[in-house]
Amino acid sequence: MANLKDIQRQIKSVSNTQKTTRAMKLVSTAKLRRAEELARRSRLYAAKMNQVIAEIAGRIKCNKVGGIDNRCFIDIENPKMIDIVFVTADKGLCGGFNIQTIKAVKKLIKEYKSKNVKVRLRGIGKKGVEFFKYNEVEMFDSVIDLSSKPDKERADEFIMTSIEDYKDGKIDGLHIIYNGFKNMMTQELHVSTILPVDTEQFECGDVQNSMLEIEAQDEEHMLDSLVNRYVEYAMYYALIDSVAAEHSARMQAMETATTNAKDMVKSLNIKFNKARQAAITTELIEIISGVESMK
Amino acid sequence: MDKLKLEILTPNGEIFNDDVVSVTLPGEEGEFGVLPHHASLSTLLEAGVIDIEKEDKSVESILINWGVVQVDEAKVIVLVEGAVAIRGDNESDIANALEDAKQLINDIADANPAIASVSAKIESAAQRLL
Questions:
Q1: Residue B64, SS3?
Q2: ipTM value for the complex
Q3: Which domain holds residue A72?
Q4: Largest CA distance in chain A
Q5: B14:A233 CB<8 A
Q6: Domain span including residue B19
Q7: Cα B1 to Cα A173: distance, rounded to the nearest angstrom
Q8: Predicted pLDDT at A217
Q9: Number of folded domains in chain B?
């Protein structure tokens, strides 16, 4: 039977852990609320942005002979080089949040490798970056303090490299992989193709309204400018959505940890009581047998 | 009186959403005003100041660094990258907003040489409020 002192120490340590996990859960809950609010407000912008792009791209697609000739909207048949941008958290203790993203990245890399397409991996977030470094997977570049504090300007700067390389023809595709927020309990993994922009979604029907004529040249110039913002925004949104998801994942993980700690304290308490009882019994037996032997 | 609905959205949320009398926008090819029943159009905006004439005839100025606008007969939707509204209830609020605005201008000044006039514009917008 374990020593009484040992058990006591163990109980203390577990309940201290429980305190920590509970505090972490509360912190995450508060942060989640803020992150979610930010994501929600920002979604309005996303909806409008998509609408504007769809309208202009749709107009060019349907009115111009040959369709859109902006590289960002053309499907490239034999891609040679693909950019994969992933977003993970900077910190752990959030369940399978990071590993899910990492797995998806690995799967996508494998898929492209089997098709003989070169992959340029660009990482955001300490956890993922460390993982790939440890496993000696080559990375094009990485930033490690952007995912915990999403910042529009820095995100723009980061993704600009990919946009420019895409427009210059150095890369033929851009994917962003991140774990996004679905609801308080679940996260949703997003593997989205950012470039080339999918033109299938643009229809001609609803764009023929009473639009003032803009010269075709202008439209294309506009589209070019818009697509930059669109990609930049997609990157930024991935970051803020990922933060919200990270907090919800951590909240959940900490909730489970707290419950587990509680159960453990309970069973340790029982163990402690048993040990105490055993000690008392042994002591009693010693006294009684001592008395007996004196008779 | 005729009104039009104006919405200004940034990646961080909505900064203006109300009925207004008219709005002046810094279009890429020059400033243009929009009144109710304007013909539909969509175009890019460059760094500059959006002047909004509200229903009570007061004018609000919002500084932007890039944008795209969609105008139709009853509604104007502006999507901007970065924006600072020059407004506030007291002097220190306005001073803060002005500070933010100057910051934004500094950020874009390198990219755009025609920015000097914008700086003067927001100064006067702030003066009007004080």
A1: strand
A2: 0.76
A3: 41-252
A4: 118
A5: no
A6: 1-130
A7: 51
A8: 62
A9: 1
SS3 for A164-184, per residue?
Answer: HHHHHCCCCCEEEEEEEECCC
Residue B79 and residue A44: Cβ atoms within 8 Å?
no
Q: What is the CATH number of the domain that holds A189?
A: 3.40.1380.10
Which of A192, A194, A188, A193 lies closest to A100 in space, CA to CA? A188
Q: Do B79 and A49 touch (CB under 8 A)?
A: yes
Please indicate whether residue B110 or residue B69 has the higher confidence score (pLDDT): B69
Q: In angstroms, rounded to a whole number, what is the distance separating the alpha carbons of residues A213 and A230? A: 23
Is the predicted pLDDT of residue B104 greater than 80, yes or no? Answer: no
The CATH number linked to B47 is: 2.60.15.10
Query: pLDDT grade, residue A219 (50/70/90)?
Result: confident
| Average pLDDT for B63-86 | 86
CB atoms inside a 10 Å sphere around CB B110: 8
Buried-exposed string A130-150: b where 16+ CB fall within 10 A, e elsewhere: bbbeeeeeeebebbbebbbeb
With respect to residue A77, please indicate whether it lies within any of the assigned structural domains. yes
* Per-residue pLDDT, A210: 46
**How far A109 CA sits from the closest chain B CA (Å)?**
31
Question: Picking from A130-134, A152-156, B5-9, B104-108, which range would have the lowest pLDDT averaged per residue?
Answer: B104-108
Residues of A whose CB is below 8 A from B16: none
For B13, nearest residue in chain A (alpha carbons): A41
Based on the number of CB atoms within 10 Å of its own CB, is A93 exposed (0-12), middle (13-18) or buried (19 or more)? middle
Q: Please answer yes or no on whether B12 and A55 come within 8 Å at the CB atom.
A: no
Number of independent structural domains in chain A: 1
Chain B CB contacts of A42 below 8 Å:
11-13
| Distance (Å) from the alpha carbon of A234 to chain B's nearest alpha carbon | 10
| Chain A residue with the nearest C-alpha to that of B38 | A212
B residues 19-58 lying closer than 8 A (beta carbon) to A: 39-44
What are the tokens at A250?
Answer: 């951590």
Residue A52 lies in a domain: yes
Q: Is residue A30 part of a domain?
A: no
Give the distance from residue B89's alpha carbon to the nearest chain A alpha carbon, in angstroms: 24
Please give the Cα distance from A170 to A35 (Å, whole number).
Answer: 35
**Residue A137 is encoded by which pair of tokens?**
């997977």
> How close does chain B come to A46, measured CA to CA in Å?
8
Residue A110 lies in a domain: yes
Task: Report phi then psi at B128, rounded to 5.
Answer: -60, -35
